[in-house]
Amino acid sequence: MKRVSMADVAARAGVSGQTVSRVVNGSPRVDPATRERVEAAMEDLGYRLHRAARALRTGRTQTIGLVATTLATVGNSRMLQAVADAAASRGYALVVVTLGGDPIDVAFERLRDQGVDGAVVLNEATASTQGATVPDDLHLVVVDAPAADRFDVVQTAHADGAAAATRHLLGLGHRTVHLLAGPSGSFSADERERGWREALASAGADVVEPLRGDWSAASGHLLGRELPADATAVFAANDQMALGLLRALAETGRRVPEDVSVVGFDDVMDAADYRPPLSTVRQDFDALGARAVDVLVSRIEAPAAPGLVTIPAELIVRESSGPAPR
Fold first, then answer.
1. Reading across the β-sheet that carries 63-68, which strands appear in turn?
2. pLDDT tens by residue, 262-300
3. Domain limits at 15?
4. Which three-class secondary structure state does DSSP give residue 315?
5. Which of 305, 301, 304, 307 is CA-nearest to residue 117?
């Protein structure tokens, strides 16, 4: 079968070959109606972009990378999906690299070997980026890290979300709120702990040192068995640990929310089907992925000084949180 060419697309759309080229390369110098006509012609003819040829013309491969420590966690897997969807919508291919114990510099070199134009670095992998050697020609957007002057950062408002969860529980009459914290050194875990502490301090409530887990439901279950007998409200730093906590409370005969109220963080897909349905802080993974890719593509196409984008987090109240027991 003959390969569909740009000339074929131009003839179908009634435009010049140069206009088709501009559409293919994402040039802003095409009016929306013409772009739509060219894209419709591409779809009708089954035009497939030849990435190698475009790379020779533009110096870009239209490929981005994603770096993560692991894809086994709920947050990382959801971010992978979000980034993949956003990249595809912008016409970019995606290469995924997991660290597997290697320094992040190794991941950067692997991505450069595959000719990527830039990369998104996720969550726990971001700490390694601070002291890493980043190739000058590799644009980076880091998800969930402190603001930096070496790369762009896109983050969730973790502290604000945690504070909202804590205030919600205090507002239900609980004297204080216990915390099942995430792993030390994780930006998102540290920020959620900061929001929790600040909300308690602002309310004049006692701060009980947190029980620290590793994001897994198993660690939430283990920590739930250690929860003090007088605890009536718990903020779990993610929904998986909240799930383990619910199991532990059920095993020890403590009812949720009659005896202990529980709020998580993330709003995973199954959170509304926990027993009871879980109050939680919704993290907008789709928005995080879309903004990370938007910023990265902008930097690839028109380099500029790094910036910071913060995505709000929303408290979702369900049946696992209720009034303090009398």
1. 93-98, 63-68, 118-122, 139-143, 152-156, 308-311
2. 999 999 999 999 999 999 999 999 999 999 999 998 888
3. 6-48
4. strand
5. 301
- Residue 169 is assigned to a structural domain of this protein: yes
Mean pLDDT of the chain: 88
Residue 203 in any domain: the answer is yes
Strand residue runs (E) in 8-138: 63-68, 93-98, 118-122
Checking if the pLDDT of 212 tops 50, the result is yes
pLDDT at 59 over 70: no
User: What tokens appear for 317 in the block?
Assistant: 């109240």
- Tokens encoding 1: 């079968």
Predicted confidence (pLDDT) at residue 52 exceeds the cutoff of 50: no
Backbone φ/ψ region at 65: left (φ over 0), alpha (ψ -120 to 50), beta: beta
Same domain, 145 and 171: no
Round to whole Å and give the CA distance between 26 and 45.
19
User: By three-state DSSP, how is residue 266 classified?
Assistant: strand
Residue 36 lies in a domain: yes
Q: Strands 63-68, 118-122: parallel, antiparallel or unpaired by DSSP?
A: parallel
Classify residue 283 by its DSSP letter. Answer: P
d(CA 162, CA 194): 8
Tens-place pLDDT, residues 64-99:
889 888 888 788 888 899 999 988 887 788 988 888
Instruction: For residues 174 and 267, give the distance between their C-alpha atoms in angstroms, rounded to a whole number.
Output: 23
Closest by CA position to 323, among listed 189, 221, 173, 194: 173
Query: Residues 198-217: what's their mean pLDDT?
Result: 97
pTM for the model stands at: 0.79
Contacts of 49 (CB under 8 A, 6+ apart): 24, 62, 91
